[in-house]
Amino acid sequence: MASTPCAKCNEPLGTRASVSSSTKTYHQECMSCHSCGKNLVTEGTYFEDEGLPYCEYDFCVLRGLICAGCDKAVTGSYITQLGKNWHPEHFKCAACATPLAGQTFYTQDNAPYCKPDYLDLFVDKCDVCQTPLEDEYMQLKEPQLLQFHTHCYKAYVKDPSVLKPKRGQSLFVFWRSQPN
Predict the structure, then answer these.
(1) For residue 170, what are the CA distances in angstroms to 44, 62, 76, 131, 167?
(2) Which of 14, 63, 108, 143 has minimal Cβ neighbours within 10 Å of its Cβ?
(3) Residue-wise pLDDT tens for the chain (180 aa)?
């Protein structure tokens, strides 16, 4: 009577130590992850997909369940944001690392940001007070582009010297003399 062959190496199982998955039997040394080759007997846990054994990590890669924040398998609770899966504790602001799970967040270049960092890094600033122009604002385009909160524009009209240069820029204000 012929011995059953190992599902990986196809040699008879014989008297060598063997282990069975849900559908196949292997020599202990042959029971390995189909993707990375890690021995699954020493690993202690395995997962199957289409009859093939996988370690936890590669099974999660196969299923798209890798945390975008730590590159580890996502098991247990997770969130899906920006087309990626995250452990809740790893979904953080790209600038300051504030946890964002369950919070309102903003995106730039497919990265998440908390509101203060998003406003500081990506939103135009008022030329008078230098705070972000979140809501309604005004623009003057000549002789140079100027942007104002409505209340700051009123201050500018009264006294144009309230203008402040934007980061890295010099501000030149030209005054014309009125003809006599």
Answers:
(1) 65, 54, 53, 18, 8
(2) 143
(3) 457 898 989 888 888 888 888 888 889 999 999 999 999 998 888 899 998 999 999 999 998 899 999 999 998 899 999 999 999 999 999 999 999 999 999 999 999 999 999 999 999 898 888 889 887 777 877 667 888 888 888 877 777 777 665 554 444 443 333 333
Q: Tell me the Cα Rg of the chain.
A: 31
Instruction: Give the angle 70-109-113 at the CA atoms, nearest 5°.
Output: 65
Q: Is 127 in the same domain as 113?
A: no
Vertex 137: Cα angle to 131 and 141 (nearest 5): 105
Rounded Cα gap, residues 160 and 139, in angstroms: 14
Answer yes or no: do 58 and 27 share one domain.
Answer: yes
Q: Which domain holds residue 114?
A: 79-122
Q: Which long-range contacts (CB under 8 A, 24 or more apart) does 18-27 make?
A: 21/46, 21/48, 21/53, 22/48, 23/48, 23/51, 24/51
83, with CB counted inside 10 A (0-12, 13-18, 19+), is exposed
Flag whether the pTM goes above 0.90: no
Domain count, the chain: 3
Task: Yes or no: say if 89 and 78 are a contact pair by the CB < 8 Å rule.
Answer: no
- The closest alpha carbon to 46, from 64, 71, 67, 20, belongs to 20
